[in-house]
């Protein structure tokens, strides 16, 4: 199997851990625990390194470039970096990265990774278990069983098994951050899962899949991504 390129989405406006986080240093650049711990971003980079994973591709804001490269040097990691002049949320950021990877190899597998999650346990085993499905052309997403009703996250509706890939199940639909009554109901239904945000997918498949869905906002961002981003390889220690 091919190496997986971790695609780490590293945006943010510094509002989620305010007043610890600020616009110039949002949540993902803050330490997870005490002063000796890694930051959320550093933990995401380290989590998806080693056997089976290639050089990470990081999409972040131009204003966070120095912080990003400094934190990479602190853990001795290099990366390919796309610095956006203006944030356009997750979809266009992933599309910009998919266009870059697909230009190099349309079959390159990328793993979309949020930079601000705390994950306990071995998630890489689960990722590699669904890799054959992603290589077969599926856009894979991970879901977790909710422990309580939550309106701040979208829900995935389970559509049943995929016979050719025992580790995968069909996504019937996605419910984007439902209002409280729907969110409370979804928390009680076994066939609904919270979207984890991790997505293994081939760069070419993501581009082809999103093309019919481009909104007025996404079209110029995707089409002009390669011309408008600053892209350089981060220095290794």
How does this model look, in words?
With 237 residues, the protein is α/β, with parallel strands linked by helices. The protein has two domains: 4-136 and 198-227, Spore Coat Polysaccharide Biosynthesis Protein SpsA, Chain A (Alpha-Beta Complex), CATH 3.90.550.10; 143-195, no CATH class. It is 30% helix and 22% strand. The chain is built from nine helices and ten strands. It has helices at 40-47, 65-74, 90-104, 123-129, 131-135, 180-188, 203-210, 218-223, 225-228, and strands at 4-10, 57-61, 79-84, 109-114, 143-144, 155-161, 169-175, 192-195, 199-202, 230-234. The strands form two sheets. The chain has a six-stranded mixed β-sheet with strand order 9-4-1-2-3-10, with helices on both faces. It has a four-stranded antiparallel β-sheet with strand order 5-8-6-7, covered by helices on one side. A hairpin with a 7-residue loop joins β6 (155-161) and β7. α3 packs across α7. The longest helix is centred in the middle third of the chain and has 15 residues, at 90-104. The protein is globular. It starts with a strand and ends with a strand.
